[in-house]
Specification:
The protein is an alpha/beta fold. It is 43% helix and 17% strand. It has a single domain, classed as TIM Barrel, CATH 3.20.20.150. The strands form three sheets. The protein has an eight-stranded parallel barrel, surrounded by five helices. A two-stranded antiparallel sheet has the order 5-7. A two-stranded antiparallel sheet has the order 10-11.
């Protein structure tokens, strides 16, 4: 499987989609993921590049292209778990648009964020501060975490009902278009699904196009905070993995680093990915072109 590069790295610097793709091609990549910051103005150039066989698109990250009414690109601009039906409807509409775009460019999968339980909660940030102070495993922190998870469990039926209203039409559309949906592992406890909730989610949607999308930086942060064991969790999802966002991580929350610039045992972790899964470098725009080319060359070896 080719190593793809997410256009999150360079979309913000380009006014023309064809140029954006050509920059990536010149670095040696044959495949891309179209990222969630891809503006609609870049879409015609991307379509031309695909038609001209300049690039292969493996996946799209919802919402892509960015809905025209959204002025600041964000994969969380609309949430399926939102309390208002208007936001949930907008999330479904934007996702259907992404699915249609994915079909148009011949992609195999779309990556989704499902939403959150409490947008304004700051539990994750508080745990990071305690990690810095080496006080993560105090009795108070353990109690706070348990209380939060109990509150979350009470809210689960409502959240699942909202999700079902949104996911049913999305999965139906994905099935018609022969696309897979990858639910991404997130970097905050407040987001859905939590590590322990993936099992129930996939049980509820068994037989559907829904699968798992691993993010190495996000999982590393949850490992750091004692929420998961990174390698064990990755193994537990192996049969469901559609693809992964590859990146390195430096504690406590520096992700989207070039491979080799952080502290992750990359060779051991990458070896746990199924051979046929989609593999995407999702890197910060701050990463140098030279470093990305170096990553690609090392991967090809």
């Amino acid at each position: 499987m080719d190593l793809a590069l997410s256009t999150c790295w360079n979309a913000s610097r380009h006014r023309e989609g064809y140029e954006m793709i050509e920059e990536i091609r010149e670095m040696g990549f044959k495949s891309v993921e179209l990222g969630h910051n891809l503006r609609f103005s870049l879409w015609p150039g991307v379509l031309k590049a695909v038609k001209d066989k300049r690039i292969r698109v493996l996946s799209l990250h919802n919402f892509c292209p960015v809905p025209i009414e959204v002025h600041r690109p964000s994969p969380d601009c609309y949430e399926f778990t939102a309390s208002t039906s208007s936001e949930r409807n907008a999330a479904v509409k934007g996702t259907i648009h992404t699915l249609e775009g994915a079909s148009e460019v011949g992609a195999a999968a779309v990556v989704l964020h499902l939403g959150s339980y409490h947008r304004q909660s700051h539990l994750t940030e508080r745990l990071v501060r305690h990690w810095k102070m080496r006080s993560l495993y105090t009795k108070k922190n353990s109690s706070d975490r348990i209380d939060y998870l109990l509150q979350r469990k009470k809210a689960t039926p409502l959240i699942q009902d909202r999700l079902k209203q949104c996911l049913d039409p999305i999965l139906k559309k994905a099935g018609k278009l022969h696309l897979r949906i990858g639910v991404e592992f997130r970097s905050r406890l407040e987001e859905y699904p939590h590590a322990d909730e993936f099992e129930g989610l996939f049980r509820d949607y068994a037989g559907s196009p829904l699968g798992y999308w691993h993010d190495f930086g996000h999982a590393a942060k949850m490992d750091l905070l004692g929420i998961i064991d990174h390698s064990q969790f990755l193994k537990s999802q192996s049969s469901r993995i559609i693809g992964a966002h590859l990146q390195d991580f430096s504690p406590p929350h520096n992700d989207h680093l070039a491979l080799g610039e952080g502290s992750l045992p990359l060779k051991e972790l990458h070896a746990l990915l199924p051979a046929k899964s989609i593999k995407v470098l999702e890197l910060s725009p701050r990463v140098s072109k030279e470093k990305i080319v170096e990553n690609l060359q090392e991967w090809q070896k």
